[in-house]
């Protein structure tokens, strides 16, 4: 677990340095959920986290490279889930989740561990989410997102779907499952005497304009990453049980081109809006989660650690740059250098 925390705490925060502008609220902020509901979601998340840690330890005993891989995936999930993407059609910003690709590569239980580490760092140092609501955020993004993506990917592969198609649908539904679960958590926690289902569907409907296109974008991104790994490192995917051992590393070229084109098209459409200098894009969790909570008397509280300015933020960014360079080098070695060694040996 030390390596997971090291890689995530350093290299993952590098993604935040790339975002020119204030961060957006992520998932359920501090103080929105009543204490009882917050405790319930911690109780739901705890067994998944415990099983995930045990799974990491089991796999690490058989493969010494597994923990660094988990740490790298934590960095990937952190960066992806901190990346605010403007959606002009909705007038808001939101973020992908990254749990689809994590679940495909390392399994859903390990993905829960990865998500917990990423969310904890975000809550402590980037004012994203909250400590009291960490359990709820882990359940929505880590448990629901990871297991939805994993089950869909495995199920579609067994039904004969191609690697790119299965990964696309897995990334898409992992994103949507996260926000459906967030809507369930929010409606359950703040409804008071109000009926559950009308409030639940109200929150879901508010998420749709933003997360519908972003889910498609995340699906394309997930498919592109899986296909790239299949082309460059089929041995790595075979070792993780994603593809059959001995498969060709050439990969589906047509699927690669299609997914890359779809990703670029959607990305260009989503970012084709006013610049941040002329207009600020509010986060979808601010416009939906915090707005609904405020309507029901649950105002978000200030984060425990304020890193909006000052030396602490500078220290975090310097640390991110230092350790992030190491993570980038590790990823390059895993994807390129070890691939060459693999080719030479085969």
Automatic annotation (TrEMBL):
UniProt-annotated location(s): Cell membrane
GO molecular function: cobalt ion transmembrane transporter activity
GO biological process: cobalamin biosynthetic process
Keywords assigned: Cell membrane, Cobalamin biosynthesis, Cobalt, Cobalt transport, Ion transport, Membrane, Signal, Transmembrane, Transmembrane helix, Transport
GO cellular component, as recorded: ATP-binding cassette (ABC) transporter complex
Transmembrane segments: 35-53, 65-87, 99-121, 159-179, 199-229, 255-273, 312-332
Membrane topology designation: Multi-pass membrane protein
Signal peptide range in chain numbering: 1-25
InterPro entries tied to this protein: CbiM, CbiM/NikMN
Known pathway: Cofactor biosynthesis; adenosylcobalamin biosynthesis
Top-rank lineage group of the source organism: Bacteria
Family designation: Belongs to the CbiM family.
Subunit structure comment from the entry: Forms an energy-coupling factor (ECF) transporter complex composed of an ATP-binding protein (A component, CbiO), a transmembrane protein (T component, CbiQ) and 2 possible substrate-capture proteins (S components, CbiM and CbiN) of unknown stoichimetry.
Function according to Swiss-Prot or TrEMBL: Part of the energy-coupling factor (ECF) transporter complex CbiMNOQ involved in cobalt import.
Protein name: Cobalt transport protein CbiM
Higher taxonomy: Bacteria, Pseudomonadati, Thermodesulfobacteriota, Desulfuromonadia, Geobacterales
Gene name, Swiss-Prot/TrEMBL: cbiM
């Amino acid at each position: 677990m030390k390596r997971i925390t090291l890689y995530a705490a350093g290299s993952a925060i590098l993604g935040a340095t790339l975002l020119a502008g204030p961060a957006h609220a992520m998932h359920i902020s501090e103080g929105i959920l009543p204490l009882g509901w917050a405790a319930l979601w911690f109780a739901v998340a705890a067994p998944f986290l415990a099983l995930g840690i045990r799974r990491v330890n089991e796999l690490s005993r058989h493969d010494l490279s597994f923990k660094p891989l988990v740490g790298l995936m934590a960095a990937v999930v952190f960066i992806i889930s901190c990346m605010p993407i403007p959606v002009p059609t909705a007038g808001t910003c939101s973020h992908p989740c990254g749990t689809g690709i994590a679940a495909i590569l390392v399994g859903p239980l390990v993905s829960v561990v990865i998500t917990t580490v990423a969310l904890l760092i975000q809550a402590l140092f980037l004012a994203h989410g909250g400590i009291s609501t960490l359990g709820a955020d882990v359940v929505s993004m880590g448990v629901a997102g990871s297991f939805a993506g994993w089950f869909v990917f495995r199920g579609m592969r067994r039904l004969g779907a191609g690697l790119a198609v299965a990964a696309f649908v897995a990334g898409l539904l992992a994103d949507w499952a996260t926000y459906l679960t967030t809507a369930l958590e929010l409606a359950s926690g703040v409804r008071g005497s109000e009926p559950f289902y009308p409030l639940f569907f109200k929150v879901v409907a508010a998420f749709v304009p933003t997360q519908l296109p972003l889910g498609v974008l995340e699906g394309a991104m997930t498919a592109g990453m899986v296909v790239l790994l299949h082309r460059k490192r089929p041995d790595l995917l075979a070792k993780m049980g994603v593809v059959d051992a001995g498969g060709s590393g050439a990969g589906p070229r047509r699927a690669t081109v299609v997914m890359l084109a779809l990703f670029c098209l959607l990305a260009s459409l989503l970012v084709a809006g006013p610049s941040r200098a002329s207009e600020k894009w509010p986060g979808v969790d601010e416009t939906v989660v915090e707005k609904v909570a405020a309507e029901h008397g649950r105002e978000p509280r200030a984060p425990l650690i304020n890193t909006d300015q000052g030396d602490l933020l500078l220290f975090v960014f310097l640390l991110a740059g230092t350790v992030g360079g190491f993570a980038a080098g590790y990823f390059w070695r895993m994807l390129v250098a070890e691939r060459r060694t693999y080719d030479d040996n085969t």
